[in-house]
Amino acid sequence: GRRRHGRDDAARGGWSDSRAASIGSVTHVTDVCRWDVPGRVNLIGEHLDYNGGPVLPLAIDRSVTVKARARDDGAVNVWSDLPDASKVSFATTVQPGDVDGWATYVAGTIWSLAERDLTIPGADLVIESRLPSGAGLSSSAATTCGVASALDELFGLGLDTAEVALVAQRAEAGFVGAPVGLMDQLAVLHGTAGHAVLIDTAVTPHTTRPVALGWEADGLVLAVIATGAHHALADGEYAARREECERAAAELGLEWLAQAGLDATVMLADETLKARTRHVLTETARVRSAVTAVGRRAWPQLGTILTASHASLRDDFEVSCPELDVAVEAALEAGALGARMTGGGFGGSAIALVEPDKVQALRERVESRYALHQWSRPEVFVVHAADGAHRVPAPGARLDG
Ligand code: ADP
Ligand code: MG
Predict the structure, then answer these.
(1) Euclidean distance between the first and final Cα of the chain, in Å?
(2) What 3-state class would DSSP assign to 88?
(3) One of this protein's Pfam families, by short name (predicted)?
(4) d(Cα 105, Cα 80) in Å, to the nearest integer?
């Protein structure tokens, strides 16, 4: 089969061992466990989770599975089905810089737990994914939240969902070096089938509320266009946007930029900060309008709001790229009600609200526009709002059967 981790005997054998690993005074509750964590798309509310604004992501029906087995020798071994990923091993006391490559997010999660005084005794971890990595669908949060959830169960760490999200966020921010907000983690942890998650990032801890999505009953689907592009400036520009937003908020005397009044852009002298602030303010208003439109099943209005969000991200926040702009244009030409980039930008994926019988035309249109540019072929697929992270009961103790 496709599951590549099985080729290594260490991953295959011994899963039924009964070990007596313990952490602090807490003895682990299981020998092996398995967690399934979805990816996400953000319906709307982009670059707002570090600005105290509302965001509306949904967990999707593509996920990462993390299998974990306790060790007691201070070692962590990780296997993955990512192309060309061979086993990576490191100590449970791993520090930033010790691990690079695909296993950074896993090592970062172990480090992040240790930063909370939760140094695990050791683990074997197997990561399998049906979620493209680096496509802007948050395989990173699925991986970190999956590892944290599995280790929490394995060693009885007693983390609640909010703490799992914080552990995962810190792994990205403190170990990988990506200063992300909490949207992705909360989306993949709190998602429920048929719902988006409305997250209020102005309050600590952030609050979450499910928002029922009725478009499928009304004959529409959400399509993802995975552009395959990932521009190298993504990380640096993300940090730059955060810094610009913090600067604008400070000049306005606000804790969060999303709290600014409509006159805020007049009060700022710098044209760049004006434009960034305009995005944050208009996007905040669009999330509220989108929640209303979803509640009223006003799909054309929702589509218009999504497309307006894209224009704002492209023109005011300047985080789009030609591949995303062409994907959105082509989706609209193919009859989508609305389309926008989703996630941080500079590549990754776009989403489109569209009738199911127009998905093929949309795919062909995006593919032909990409072919003209000689860009590699994008992937177009429909997603459904799915449940967030959950443990998968393993029959018996064997994980690999
Ligand atoms: P995205 O979150 O949009 O998919 P990121 O660059 O933030 O993109 O995260 C991708 C990273 O997540 C990978 O480089 C890898 O470290 C981790 N990851 C994703 N899928 C897997 C997997 N199947 N096994 C191990 N790590 C994975
Ligand atoms: Mg990510």
Answers:
(1) 12
(2) strand
(3) GalKase_gal_bdg
(4) 12
ipTM reported for the complex surpasses 0.90: yes
**From the alpha carbon of 64, which atom of ligand 1 is closest?**
23
Distance of CA 341 to the CA centre of its chain: 14
Could you give the count of Cα atoms lying within 13 Å of 67 in the half-sphere of its Cβ? Answer: 23
Atom of ligand 1 nearest to the CA of 137: 3
Nearest to 159 by CA among 148, 169, 170: 148
- Determine the average pLDDT of the residues in 299-303: 98
pTM for the predicted model, two decimal places: 0.91
Q: Could you give the CA distance from residue 303 to residue 172 in angstroms, rounded to a whole number?
A: 32
For the Cβ of 144 lying below 6 angstroms from any atom of ligand 1, the answer is no
- For the segment 156-198, what is each residue's pLDDT rounded down to a tens digit? 999 999 999 999 999 999 999 988 899 999 999 999 999 999 9
Nearest-10 crossing angle of helices 104-115, 139-155: 50
Tell me the three state secondary structure of residue 63. Answer: strand
Q: What is the pLDDT of residues 5-15, one digit of tens each?
A: 333 333 333 34
pLDDT digits 0-9 by tens, 76-87: 999 999 998 999
Report which protein residue has its CA nearest ligand 1's atom 9.
Answer: 140
